[in-house]
Specification:
The complex is a heterodimer of chains A (252) and B (690). By secondary structure, chain A is mainly alpha-helical. Chain A contains ten helices and no strands. Chain A is globular. The two termini of chain A are 24 Å apart. By secondary structure, chain B is α/β, with parallel strands linked by helices. Chain B folds into two domains: 210 residues, no CATH class; 344 residues, Alkaline Phosphatase, subunit A (3-Layer(aba) Sandwich), CATH 3.40.720.10. In chain B, strand 11 and strand 12 form a beta hairpin. Classes of the chains: A mainly alpha (252), B alpha/beta (690). At the A-B interface, helix 5 and helix 7 of A face helix 6 of B.
């Protein structure tokens, strides 16, 4: 996502860190403007993410296309298209107005301890989730046994749906990390993105899932956001590494 | 140079070799760990007794890597191998888990597309995926990270020569291992199975090694030698079945044989000792006595009880089955099943089998036989096998019975037995002629999830307070769905019994109902019987299945046969009741009314079984009851030896289509001859055979 590259590096940190007010004042106006734009972009991303649930209001229209389970799959396809178009547009906008490149792969390699730590986080997450299902693999429980092919297809589509949500959630987290790092420079980097993932993205997703859907395990997905946050930090906030590691955790 | 210096130099060289070949060393560890985990989750052991084939593959893979000059290419190569190993193991673990413990064998390849239907749910072993996932993640990340940090590998000419020589050695070793692992196969003598070291699990050769060995065995060591045809001829005709007190009790009767899919006694019986998690399982707030629950069950399963409690019904209370449906089906129609590297439905669907029940009844009495099944027409190749090899006049399948848009609803949903019986009752039980009807049901087939077409049954169960839905207990719910499916089979039986009564056929129809195997899907049988491990007391109870034989309306007093019986005994028992004498060397079992006991050899699981013992070979007895003594073991060895001798002859009969042409004519002539004799006289017929 917003990787540290020459084009896209975090500005020099001030030598004195008296308080937020003074450090905030020391940030150049141009950087502030960019950071505000990034924050707004994060907000819009979240809005798109959560408002996409309103597509369910079109269910009567979907039902006109075909009866049965097809409307549900149609909904997920629609979400996929909307999210992809949004990300492309967002990418172009940020590149133009903030000189911020989404999806630039990180150049520097992760070190061995961090790599091991990511694997351990993934393993612990998998172990804990499976323990909740009497040591069955999560995907097996969620795909269901003895289900019809149509239900299996829907369950599979739900995974893609959650993958898309994670995509936008991580995008928003990376934008928040970038913006707040610029606005509030500190001696040690504060994990704004990770905090955002757990407190904003995770909680809102949890609330909406619990109240507006029949999803059986919204709490589980909320707990998983802690693993995502940890992985995000451990990978030096590399979007690509975080995303694919989190997808594996999400599926397994 | 002193020894110390030599050792030091050698140590340094070795360490350098390990360092440069870190990817190879890590691959060996990763692959062995994945393989051993696969063995642990299937066989319960974290080792292989004969790992040599697997190790030879590892060695070969490592030697090939020595030709690859850079770490990145080696990394890709080894990652592919590790992933291949993982996927292969995963597939065979899924097959193992979804089929109740079958390990891969060559014959499975003949299942073709049916295999995908058999493995309709993918049980994933958490342990295997978890351990393998970590291993692959570690190899995938750390292996790649070091590709730039470690010295480039040496692929000098001299190293290539050494590698080539070693590679050749490994290939020769691998070939010899494959040869010596299979050369003992002798189609004329299977007694080696009684003393083999193979345990019929992946703990011998591992998953990869077993697959390779089975392919080698199936391709190059499976030829059946027809041998001495005179000896085979004499063997077939040397003995006939013995009369029993019930011989001919159903003389002239119609025959209805119903293979009830996954049918278990706990479908409708309350038994707190045998089925502690069945209807006897305590339920919060349910204060009813056992008698009250039994009374409710009679309301839910009235027709099973009509069969079970009828004075005309013989109960085989100690019947066992350890097979898949197709094998149980064949055993009940043929009385045998060969041990070839093919399943007969696929490998020999057009063989001449004059001793099949339909052919015997046609030859002796001109009876027309028809087969019905509400599954898919081509599944198990039945559409060809039933009408050709087995001799049925017709085979009616699901597609012929149900409307085109009702295909069973895909996975999870099953066609209803009651609909099949209701739709086909006139063809199944025709008036005006003697008939032999074979029916294979399907509703009780797994998976056991909530089904739309069984909603009424769930409601009825709830009305009677039987097996209520429990959101916290998956096993209990699976049992609920299983028993609800049983209610539909019960309804089907009711349709049949009513129809036979209404058309005055009941008094001259012999009805046999039997379970083809235990309810292994989702471990229902383990759960209901609370038997999970082979060291559980009364382990063989796990494979006890119902057999009920209703002999018209005769007053037999509802007798219960408590001797050990199995699927192979169904064919001789039916023929015994019909008063038909057949050549006993072609039947693996004996009639239920004979004092003799048979022994079950499971073709599907490569195990021997009675009610007291369960073994792969006498060198590997997996379970034996406390009262098994030396005398019993000697008797078992004798029974098993006789059975294996019969199997080896059957192998020759099947593989060479022995009864093709004139041999069928001869068989029919001799069959008629032995059945024209007074029953007590028909014991030795060697003279006829001559």
């Amino acid at each position: 996502m917003t990787e540290n590259t020459e084009q896209n590096s975090i500005p020099e940190q001030p030598e004195q860190y008296a308080d937020f007010k003074s450090t905030f004042a020391s940030v150049p106006q141009q950087d502030k403007r960019r950071a505000y734009t990034l924050l707004i972009a994060a907000g819009v991303t979240l809005a798109v993410l959560f408002l996409s649930r309103l597509f369910w209001l079109f269910k009567p229209v979907f039902d006109l296309v075909y009866y049965g389970t097809l409307p549900i799959i149609l909904y997920y396809i629609l979400i996929g298209i909307v999210f992809t178009v949004f990300i492309i547009l967002l990418n172009r906008y940020l590149k133009k107005h903030c000189d911020c490149r989404l999806f630039l792969p990180q150049k520097q390699q992760m070190d061995v301890p961090r790599t091991l730590a990511v694997i351990i986080v993934g393993a612990i997450a998998m172990l804990c989730v499976s323990a909740g299902f009497k040591f069955k693999v999560k995907i097996q429980v969620e795909m269901g046994s003895g289900v019809t092919m149509a239900t299996a297809l829907i369950n599979l589509a739900i995974y893609i749906y959650y993958g898309l949500h994670l995509w936008l959630g991580l995008t928003a987290a990376a934008l928040v990390q970038r913006a707040l790092t610029v606005l509030l420079p500190t001696k040690y980097s504060v994990p704004w993105g990770a905090i955002f993932l757990v407190t904003v993205f995770g909680l809102i997703e949890f609330a909406l899932e619990a109240w507006t859907t029949t999803h059986l395990y919204p709490w589980l997905y909320y707990i998983l956001t802690y693993a995502y946050a940890l992985v995000y930090e451990l990978t030096n906030r590399s979007f690509h590494l975080t995303y694919w590691a989190c997808i594996i955790i999400l599926v397994l | 140079m002193s020894f110390k210096q030599v050792a030091k130099t050698a140590g340094k060289t070795f360490l350098r070799f390990i360092k440069i070949n870190y990817l190879m060393v890590a691959y060996i560890f990763a692959s062995v760990l994945i393989e051993l985990t696969g063995i642990a989750v299937t066989a319960g052991k974290f080792y292989m007794t004969s790992p040599w084939l697997f190790l030879s593959f590892l060695a070969l893979a490592c030697l090939i890597s020595q030709y690859i000059p850079n770490h990145k290419a080696r990394y890709a190569y080894f990652m592919c191998l590790i992933l291949a190993n993982f996927i292969l193991d995963f597939v065979f673990i899924v097959i193992f888990d979804s089929t109740g413990g079958t390990i891969f064998e060559y014959a499975m390849l003949s299942l073709r597309r049916d295999a995908m239907i058999i493995v309709e749910v993918i049980p994933m072993s958490f342990t295997f995926i978890f351990v393998s996932g970590i291993v692959i993640a570690l190899y995938g990340t750390l292996g790649f990270m070091f590709t730039k940090r470690i010295e480039r590998p040496n692929v000098a000419f001299s190293a290539k020569i050494t590698t080539a020589a070693l590679g050749l050695l490994v290939i020769v070793g691998n070939t010899l291992l494959a040869f010596f692992g299979n050369y003992r196969f002798d189609s004329n003598d299977l007694t080696y199975k009684l003393h083999q070291q193979e345990t019929g699990t992946y703990a011998n050769k591992g998953i990869v090694g077993n697959m390779y060995n089975e392919l080698v065995r199936g391709l190059w060591f499976s030829d059946i030698d027809v041998g001495d045809t005179k000896e085979l001829h004499d063997f077939i005709y040397s003995h006939t079945t013995e009369p029993t007190p019930l011989t001919g009790r159903a003389d002239g009767f119609n025959v209805v044989t119903i293979l009830c899919e996954s049918f278990e006694w706990f479908t409708f019986l309350y038994d707190a000792d045998k089925f502690p998690n069945g209807f006897a399982r305590p339920i919060d707030g349910d204060e009813r006595s056992a008698d009250e629950i039994k009374s409710a069950l009679k309301q839910l399963y009235p027709n099973f009880y009509r069969m079970y409690e009828s004075k005309s019904t013989v109960i085989l209370n100690n019947a066992h089955s350890l097979e898949k449906t197709d094998i149980s089906e064949n055993k009940s129609i043929l009385g045998n099943y060969p041990l070839l590297y093919q399943y007969v439905n696929y490998g020999y669907p057009e063989n001449s089998l004059p001793y099949s029940m339909p052919n015997v009844l046609k030859t002796l009495f001109g009876v027309e036989s028809n087969s019905f099944h509400n599954g898919d027409k081509t599944f198990y190749n039945r559409d060809i096998h039933h009408t050709n090899a087995l001799g049925f006049n017709s085979y009616t399948a699901g597609e012929d019975i149900y409307p085109p848009d009702e295909d069973g609803g895909g996975l999870g949903e099953r066609r209803l037995d009651s609909v099949m019986f209701d739709t086909c009752k006139e063809q199944m039980f025709p008036e005006g002629r003697r008939f032999n009807t074979y029916i294979t049901t399907i509703t009780q087939h797994g998976q056991y999830a909530e089904r739309e077409n069984l909603q009424d049954n769930y409601a009825k169960m709830d009305e009677y307070g039987i097996l209520p839905f429990d959101e916290d207990d998956e096993d209990a719910n699976a049992l609920r769905y299983y028993c609800a499916a049983g209610m539909d089979t019960d309804k089907a039986i009711g349709i049949m019994l009513d129809y036979l009564d209404e058309h005055d056929l009941a008094n001259k129809t012999l009805i046999t109902m039997f379970g083809d195997h235990n309810a292994y899907y989702q471990g229902i049988s383990n759960y209901a019987k609370n038997i999970y491990f082979t060291d559980t007391a009364d382990y063989t109870e796990l494979y006890r299945v119902p057999v009920m034989i209703k002999v018209g309306n005769s007053d037999l007093g509802n007798p219960v046969v408590n001797k050990f019986t199995c699927t192979s005994d169904i064919y001789p028992t039916i023929l015994d009741l019909l008063g038909v004498t057949v050549f006993s060397n072609l039947t693996y079992g004996v009639t239920a009314f004979s004092p003799q006991e048979s022994i079950l050899y499971s073709r599907a699981y490569d195990k021997f079984l009675t009610d007291k013992i369960y073994f792969n070979s006498l060198s590997n007895i997996i379970y034996k009851a406390p009262d098994v003594d030396e005398e019993y073991l000697t008797d078992i060895e004798q029974r098993a030896t006789v059975l294996l001798d019969k199997i080896s002859h059957l192998n020759r009969i099947f593989a060479t289509d022995y009864f093709k042409g004139g041999n069928t004519t001869e068989f029919n002539t001799l069959l008629k001859a032995v059945n024209e004799q007074p029953i007590s006289a028909s014991k030795e017929v060697t003279s006829y055979a001559a």
